[in-house]
Design a protein that fits this description.
alpha+beta; Immunoglobulin-like; four-stranded antiparallel β-sheet; 23 helices; elongated; NAD; Thiol_diS_interchange_DbsD; electron transport; electron transfer activity
Length: 733
């Protein structure tokens, strides 16, 4: 048991150091990038202002205002027209630069003279780094309200006003009350605006725009600014505009030639006196200039970006359910497979006392600890936008954890028992089942470490989940979502625990044999982990030893006694198979091969007949990647960038199976093939991953002849040759 305490303390110290490292950055602090202030303009009106630093911007839809004073309610804020910005993560949004002033009306009760105001906002730097949501509280003194007028005088004034209104001019014609204009902003953008007369307003919900007689030209997705909320007797809760409304309309063109199109606008409004106009329609002919370039087809989102987009629209409950589903998907990938023998070994190590209930509790402890680790991971990702798992792929950490599995395997072989001192066993004899590697605490520690060290795979669901959490900056949502993700990934392990009590032998020689089998599996996990940091030929030798030694124990080299049972013959046959393949691995090791699945590759053929090597990448440093992409673009060459790490098992699978396929190599002809090695996870590596919103390897990015990334064609996680070829065909289409 002290053995696990040492591991647990090491885990906590590493976690603390990693969390500290994730916070580094070279951007302005949020209070300098976005200087926010608030002031009271009147007893019933305040104004919130921002002084935004050059190179930074604020999102309008991320602003929230809340009154912490019970006697004061806030009206709807009135936002000025902002700049439409296409965000890769949020789509078309409205942003503000330089300065921003937002007036807000107040409803004051019981003569409240002060307001405690909570302001929440979020912004980004142009370099691609976004801040988590910021919160600031202001204590504002409200001016004294204007003196209440004499009721009699007010009545007389109202009567006079009513008398005048009965004889005032008629309502303005629609074209004067709502003057509509449209213009061409550039070859791919139109601009529309309404000048709204004083005393009139326009409904946001009634604005409709379409192009007619416009062959090859279509309207893109446009964003109508938010209006002032109003409870309308006819239409219910609506938003209205006074004075002016204007916004841009993106268009897509199939030809570059100049042409004339007709924009049709439909809208409806009312006068403040309570008279509404029928729906109006107006058409304006617009002359489009020659298009500098044709707009591509509507951009398709990559798999992880589709996940991000859907999560932004979902409710909290649906988000958690989605993350649980993503966990189920990840549980079907090779990432989760190494955890199965680990948990199985823990259960078997419990001995003949194992029951179905106890096995399930061990599995539950393992899975919950793993899910809680994902929770910590999610919170850190939400706050710092970093990949905690990659910080645990240092050679000494992998070596230490491999040593843990070797120690556990030796205990399975009966060399020793991992147990508490006798004095503690006496005190805890009523719960003496906590005495070895089958303990709940031991299972929890192994579950936490396994989630970080054993399975650092990055697949599209996990990448999308972490990008979503990093964008929202919501630590509560981040932790809850990734806890659901971890539980989803643990479903197969819970099923294993529920069945283990019935499937595993309870006593006798079978139990010892079963423990020995899982001891070998523990050694296999250790070798598999060491393959991240040791040369391939050394791993080949270790696999050979791991096959040959157990084969000897299975009597592979001993003659079968007469009248042997069928089971005895089966084990000998298995032992001979393991021995034969182990010898092939030794031969492959002597030939200098490193792929255990192809130990005799190159044997018996001359150099001209030797197997064609896989794809040869040009290794580039993180800091030099952009320059190399620009150089390729200058030479009219497309670029494929592969993010790789020695500890990334999926990267090695891509290298061994996908990139070695002749069809893949043929399809990639003409591409400049670059590879960025992020094994060491340096500051430059972290900055580059953050620049492209990547959680970690494996990730493959494609850049066109204009040196711009084709974000919709990203490949995240492992793809076999067939799937990857289809991805390449989509890139070229």
């Amino acid at each position: 048991m002290p053995f696990f305490k040492v591991i647990f303390l090491c885990f906590l110290s590493i976690l603390g150091q990693s969390a500290f490292a994730l916070g580094a950055g070279e951007v302005l602090p949020p209070d300098q990038a976005f200087k926010v202030s608030a002031k009271a303009l009147a007893a019933d009106r305040i104004e919130i202002s921002w002084d935004i630093a050059e190179g930074y911007y604020l999102y309008r839809n991320k602003m929230r205002f809340e009154s912490k004073t019970g006697q004061i309610r806030l009206g709807e804020p009135v936002f000025p027209a902002g700049e439409t910005h296409h965000d890769e993560n949020f789509g078309d949004v409205v942003i503000y630069r330089n300065t921003l002033n937002v007036p807000v009306t107040l409803s004051v009760e019981n003569g409240a003279s002060s307001l405690q105001l909570l302001v929440q906002y979020q912004g980004c730097a142009d370099r691609g780094i976004c801040y988590p949501p910021q919160k600031t509280t202001f204590d504002l003194k409200l001016p004294a309200p204007a003196a209440t007028a004499d009721p009699v005088k007010q009545l007389l004034k109202g009567t006079q006003s009513l008398k005048l209104n009965l004889f005032e001019d008629e309502l303005l014609p629609p074209d004067q009350a709502f003057e509509f204009f449209a213009s061409v902003k550039d070859d791919h953008t139109l601009h529309v605006n309404w000048n709204i007369a004083e005393g009139y307003y326009l409904y946001r919900e009634k604005v409709q725009l379409e192009l007619v007689n416009a062959d090859g030209v279509t309207l893109g997705t446009y964003d109508i600014p938010r209006g002032i909320p109003k409870q309308d007797e006819a239409f219910g809760q609506v938003e209205t505009f006074h004075n002016e409304l204007g916004f841009d309309l993106p268009i897509s063109r199939s030809t570059q030639s100049a042409q004339t199109v007709t924009l049709q606008a439909k809208y409806q409004g009312c006068a403040d006196r309570g008279v509404c106009y029928p729906p109006m329609s107006k058409k304006i002919d617009l002359a489009l200039p020659v298009a500098q370039q044709l707009a591509s087809a509507p951009e398709q989102l990559s798999e992880q970006d589709q996940i991000v987009q859907s999560l932004h629209k979902d409710s909290f409950a649906v988000t958690l359910l989605s993350f649980f589903g993503f966990g189920l998907l990840l549980s079907l990938t090779p990432c989760i497979f190494p955890m199965i023998p680990i948990l199985s070994g823990i259960i078997v190590g419990h001995g003949h006392r194992i029951t179905t209930g106890r096995a399930f509790l061990l599995s539950l402890s393992y899975v919950v600890a793993s899910a809680l680790t994902y929770t910590v991971f999610g919170i850190l990702a939400a706050l710092f936008g970093g990949n905690l798992q990659s910080a645990f792929q240092q050679p000494w950490i992998i070596g230490l954890f491999s040593g843990v599995f070797v120690a556990l395997s030796l205990s399975m072989f009966g060399f020793y028992n991992l147990e508490l001192p006798k004095s503690f066993q006496v005190k805890l004899h009523n719960s003496s089942e906590i005495h070895r590697d089958g303990s709940l605490l031991g299972a929890a520690i192994m579950g936490a470490l396994s989630s970080l060290i054993v399975g650092p795979c990055v697949a599209a669901p996990l990448a999308g989940a972490l990008i979503f959490i990093g964008q929202t900056g919501d630590a509560v949502l981040g932790g809850s979502a990734l806890f659901a993700l971890g539980l989803g990934m643990g479903v197969p392990l819970l099923l294993l625990g529920a069945s283990a009590g019935k499937l595993l032998p309870k006593a006798g020689n079978w139990l010892n044999s079963t423990k020995a089998v899982f001891g070998v599996i523990m050694l296999a996990v250790a070798v598999w982990m060491l393959s991240r940091i040791l040369p391939g030929n050394v791993i080949m030798l270790l696999w050979a030893m791991l096959l040959i030694f157990p084969a000897v124990y299975l009597s592979a080299v001993d003659p079968l006694p007469e009248n042997s049972s069928g089971w005895r013959k089966l084990w000998k046959g298995l032992g001979l198979t393991m021995l034969a393949y182990g010898l092939l691995l030794l031969i492959g090791f002597s030939l200098g091969n490193s792929n255990p699945l192809k130990p005799l590759q190159g044997l018996g053929v001359n150099t001209t007949q030797a197997a064609e090597p896989g794809i040869v990448f040009e290794r580039v440093a993180s800091a030099a990647l952009e320059a190399r992409i620009n150089q390729a673009a200058a030479n009219h060459q497309a670029v494929m960038v592969d993010f790789y790490a020695d500890w990334c098992i999926s990267c090695k699978e891509m290298e061994a199976y996908t990139f070695a396929d002749p069809r893949v190599k043929q399809t990639l002809k003409g591409y400049v093939l670059l590879q960025v090695d992020v094994t060491n996870n340096t500051d430059d590596d972290k900055a580059l991953l953050a620049k492209f919103d990547l959680i970690g390897p494996p990730a493959i990015l494609f850049f066109g002849l204009d040196a711009q990334e084709k974000t919709a064609n990203r490949v995240i996680g492992y793809q076999d040759a067939e799937t990857f070829i289809k991805s390449l065909q989509r890139v070229k289409s």
